[in-house]
Design a protein that fits this description.
single chain, 252 residues
Length: 252
């Protein structure tokens, strides 16, 4: 097995996707919020590039759609939810389709969706995401959503933790230079994830916005067994080791 990590969105165009498993990572906060939505029983999560695309989807889907999104860390005006994981409760999203657009994360999700199989990873489901990726029996590409196109420390740390778990599950796995770099950061921060609240630029930005509760939520590991997996136009809840998700039909 080969494991590749795209450390920034600038590397997405060269990242191997054909025939691969792709995992999109946006720890603060899009993939963490997506895991929370799937844990809360959403029907599916649809990433879209901008607010106009989200509103167009809602116009077609009606009451079954929850609009969620942010720009620069702030919720989008007129949307049902922002991007805070705690907002994605069973009361708000259970049995409904979440349409999400964010500053960084949804671009990584849309790129991942071009792979042979795609899932979403965060610190909160890092072990489950690695197990699911191993189950696919393919090379793995990890896409770090980054910070407005630049490097994101927390995404790279999460990617490094994924690389470590993938390498443990597949001895002899070949790691790209990006994967090796991420692995080193994952080892450094693995036992001190709380440092990411101050060491990462998005962590500091969320603190300035009064989002300390979001940081506490996002910087936990392995509190979820759910992996959002791409199927017919949406990321749907699946547990690693469980049968493929069913019941989603694309409405695109």
């Amino acid at each position: 097995m080969r494991v590749h990590v795209a450390l920034t969105p600038a590397e997405f165009s060269d990242a191997p996707l054909t025939g691969c498993v792709a995992l999109a990572v946006d720890v603060l906060r899009a993939t963490t919020a997506s895991v929370a939505a799937c844990d809360a029983g959403c029907r599916g999560l649809v990433p879209v590039p901008d607010a106009a695309a989200a509103e167009a989807w809602a116009a077609r889907d009606g009451a079954d759609t929850v609009l969620a999104g942010e720009r620069g860390g702030e919720a989008l005006a007129g949307f049902d939810l922002g991007n805070s994981p705690a907002e994605f409760t069973a009361d708000r999203v259970g049995g409904r389709t979440v349409v999400l657009t964010t500053t960084n994360g949804t671009a990584a999700m849309l790129t991942a969706a071009r792979a042979a199989a795609a899932g979403l990873a965060a610190l909160t489901n890092v072990s489950a995401a690695a197990r699911w990726a191993l189950e696919q029996g393919r090379d793995v590409t990890i896409l770090c959503a980054g910070d407005n196109g630049a490097f994101s420390l927390e995404d790279t740390v999460c990617a490094g933790l994924l690389v470590g778990r993938l390498a443990n599950g597949s001895p002899g796995a070949a790691l790209s230079e990006g994967a090796q770099a991420a692995l080193g950061l994952g080892r450094h921060y693995g036992a001190r994830l709380e440092r990411l609240a101050v060491d990462s630029s998005w962590g500091r930005r969320l603190q300035r916005l009064g989002r300390d509760a979001d940081l506490a939520w996002c910087l936990r590991t392995d509190v979820s067994l759910v992996v959002p997996v791409f199927l017919a136009g949406a990321f749907v809840p699946r547990r690693a080791g469980a049968p493929a998700a069913v019941g989603w039909e694309s409405r695109a």
